[in-house]
Write a structure and sequence with these properties.
Elements lengths: L1 E4 L11 E3 L2 H9 L3 E3 L2 H7 L8 H10 L10 H17 L1
Antiparallel strand pairs: 1-2, 1-3
Length: about 90
C-alpha cells in the first residue's frame, strides 16, 4: 500500500511516501504515523469513472459489495470506487 508519513518514524521522515506491505501500512495508519496516500494513486485512475452517472456509480458499488447509499454524492461514490481500485492494486 502506498502511504504518506505524517510523523517522523525510524525509517522515514514526515512527508515521505513509501510503498509498504498492507499489514504494516494498517498498523502505521492506526498508530497515526502515516495515512494512505491516495492522491498519487488517484491520478492513475481518476478518469476511469469520469463518464459514469450517479446511478451507474451506485450499481458498480453494489456489484463490488461496497458500503454505498443513494444519499452519497457522485464524488463520494467515485472516491469509494477509486479507493477500492487502489486497494486491489496493492494486494
Amino acid at each position: 500500500m502506498l502511504i504518506e508519513f505524517v510523523k517522523n518514524a525510524p525509517n522515514a521522515k514526515k512527508g515521505d511516501i513509501k510503498q509498504v506491505p498492507i499489514i504494516q501500512a494498517n498498523i502505521l495508519i492506526k498508530l497515526g504515523i502515516a495515512k494512505q496516500h491516495i492522491k498519487t494513486a488517484k491520478n492513475t485512475v481518476k478518469n476511469s469513472y469520469s463518464d459514469f452517472n450517479k446511478d451507474k456509480l451506485l450499481a458498480e458499488c453494489e456489484k463490488r459489495q461496497l458500503a454505498s447509499t443513494k444519499k452519497m454524492t457522485k464524488k463520494q461514490l467515485t472516491d469509494l470506487l477509486i479507493t477500492d481500485d487502489i486497494n486491489k492494486e496493492s494486494n
